[in-house]
Amino acid sequence: MSEAADYFKRERYITRRLSLVVLAATAVLLPVTLAASSGHIPLVSLPLAIAGVVVAVVFMVLLILRAANNRFPRSTTPDHLPMDKITRRKLRRRVLILEILAAVYAFVLISTVAHAHLGQWPGVLCTAAVVLLMDFALIKAILRLRSKLKEDSALDAGHAVE
């Protein structure tokens, strides 16, 4: 199986599980937030609940990524076959989506820094750190996929010459 097909299988596996984790985290935080806002539980417990959910989500993300690495090991041999048109189109679409997300995160970072004058520095710093981390991961993924497309165009040109 080609390296690109493995990439899409791995991504689908991770995306489905991360969606379930986000849904479960929302299902836990929403009732706690509503109970805290209506006065049924002390307001002090809300940051503890958020911290607990964040720790649980980080732990689950690590488990999901580890399971994905075990289930879909990365190929050690390079793929010397050119991609078909559908796979190339999928990769180009993925690069476009990732570029849009990187732009959105950059806007969120600028907006966060612009709202820093409100004096909520711990929240601003945490948000900025998370946004920078997400932007870094998105840019790294974009560069990796672009290099994959560039390798494929070089392979395709090499096969066309022969």
Features:
mainly alpha, 162 residues, elongated, 4 helices, 83% helix
Structure characterization notes:
With 162 residues, the chain is mostly helical. The protein has four helices and no strands.
Short description:
By secondary structure, the chain is mainly alpha-helical. Helix content is 83%, strand content 0%. The relative contact order is 0.09.
The helix/strand series, from N terminus to C terminus, equals: HHHH
- Overall 3D form: elongated
The oligomeric status of these chains comes to single chain
Distance between the termini: 24 Å
Helix content: over 70%
Number of strands: 0
Strand content: under 5%
Helix run count: 4
Low-pLDDT ranges:
none
Average pLDDT over all residues? 82
Structural class based on helices, strands and sheet pairing? mainly alpha
The radius of gyration over CA amounts to 21 Å
What composes the largest sheet? none
Summarize the SSE layout with pairings.
Blueprint: H1 3-38, H2 45-71, H3 85-114, H4 121-161
Helix pairs in contact: 1-2, 3-4
